[in-house]
Design brief:
The chain is an alpha/beta fold. It has a five-stranded mixed beta sheet with strand order 2-1-3-4-5, sandwiched between helices.
Length: 240
């Protein structure tokens, strides 16, 4: 017998008056984010995980958030930590280690406050690193949105840059993440770049305030670029 039939049998004729809330948990506020995370963890546990393949030549930047709670001195423990990574990377002849990037502290602040992480990102954007390896996601940021944002930004580079979190066994360039890393959900499907019009062009002084022609506009931009380069050269000469 269903619950609705049981209600009718007990004399409740109007089911609209019946609450479908779990009254025993009415004081417990469940986070929608926690439900999504739990669902995602179940999904991760059900699939074959992808990881950086040894046959792909990677230029690796190892990111370490160093916090020593062992009996070893900081110097000894840090060298042991580095050696673990060196041993792993040496097993893959097509991989090369670019550098170790080490920030200190038990927890990650905002990314802009982590100097070595910022140096690593600079190397990624310059094409010197195309794979970041770190022990856990919390080394980089405690904010999942910040992690997702930087993962998308790195994935959009040419060539793309991936991050591998060892403890969570998450590789941001795995095939099952690629669609979400490059999605355009923030824009409508038929979105296009707007064409140029006179409002995009610089204006010149005069009684009629006419916009520059495209040829004149390009000439002005080139002149500004030359002026900027000259200014920077002068600055460099001044400081030299």
């Amino acid at each position: 017998m269903s619950e609705e039939e049981l209600v009718l049998q007990r004399g409740q004729t109007d089911l609209k008056e019946t609450t479908y809330e779990n009254v025993f948990r009415r004081g417990i506020v469940e986070s929608p984010k926690e439900k999504l995370l739990a669902k995602h963890r179940l999904w991760l546990a059900s699939i074959q995980h992808e990881y950086p393949m040894p046959y792909i030549p990677y230029k690796i930047g190892v990111y370490i958030r160093f916090y020593n709670q062992t009996q070893y001195s900081d110097e000894v423990y840090l060298e042991k930590h580095k050696q673990w990574f060196l041993d792993d990377i040496s097993l893959c002849p097509r991989w090369s280690l670019v550098d170790f990037y080490i920030d200190y502290g038990s927890s990650a602040p905002h990314m802009e406050s982590s100097k070595e992480w910022c140096r690593l990102l600079t190397d990624c954007f310059a094409g010197r690193v195309d794979l970041i390896v770190t022990q856990k996601a919390g080394n980089v940021s405690e904010d999942p949105q910040e992690l997702a944002w930087i993962s998308r930004l790195l994935a959009a580079q040419k060539p793309p840059v991936g991050i591998y979190f060892i403890s969570e066994d998450i590789f941001t360039m795995a095939s099952y993440y690629r669609e979400s890393l490059t999605d355009r959900a923030m824009l409508p499907e038929d979105w296009e770049v707007l064409p140029k019009d006179e409002l995009d062009l610089p204006m010149i002084g005069g009684p009629e305030m006419l916009p520059l022609s495209m040829e004149e506009s390009n000439g002005t931009k080139e002149q500004k670029s030359e002026d900027l380069q000259a200014h920077l050269s002068e600055e460099g000469g001044t400081h030299a």
